[in-house]
Design a protein that fits this description.
The longest helix is centred in the middle third of the chain and has 22 residues. The protein has 5 helices and 7 strands; from the N terminus they run βββαββαβααβα.
Length: 156
């Protein structure tokens, strides 16, 4: 068994992700962020397929175009897959031993479905909750099952 395990906690929703690690005092601190707006460029015509958009067929009549999928849901899944891709990269670089993922149920499932086998093997826990807006100093309560308590030497 490894002497010193490195824990990575990912706190995500459909548009934001924080990569959090325990410090020496076991307090949790965000070390990096990933946001949907900056993660990839969106095509300029993305909003054209929103519900109720009109479709011009070449005739003078306009017809309502019903989308096959909700674009927000598709973007949420796309972002979750991007988070999984980042976790796979970090795992291949061996930057963590244990992984805990916290995200709303739909995002959590989408992240987990794209994790590689070796990344999935490092998952020691999941939390189906949206904690993205919870400040670092309040995260400990949610992850106490996975963050080891501070070991203090006893002086006699």
């Amino acid at each position: 068994m490894r002497k010193h395990l490195r824990l990575l906690i990912v706190v995500a929703d459909g548009e934001h992700a924080r990569f959090v690690r325990p410090a020496e005092d076991h307090a949790l601190h965000s070390e990096s962020h990933l946001n949907a707006e900056t993660a990839h460029e969106q095509p300029a015509d993305l909003g054209a397929d929103h519900p109720g958009a009109t479709f011009h067929s070449g005739s003078s009549a306009h017809h309502a175009l019903a989308p096959r999928h909700d674009l927000h849901d598709l973007e949420t899944i796309k972002f979750a897959h991007l988070v999984a891709q980042r976790l796979n990269e970090l795992a291949s670089q061996d930057t963590f031993d244990d992984l805990v993922i916290a995200a709303p149920p739909h995002s959590l499932a989408a992240i987990r479905e794209k994790l590689h086998v070796d990344t999935q093997a490092r998952v020691i826990g999941t939390l189906a909750k949206d904690l993205v807006k919870v400040p670092d100093q309040e995260l400990s309560e949610h992850f106490k099952a996975w963050v080891r308590p501070v070991h203090r030497s006893i002086k006699h």
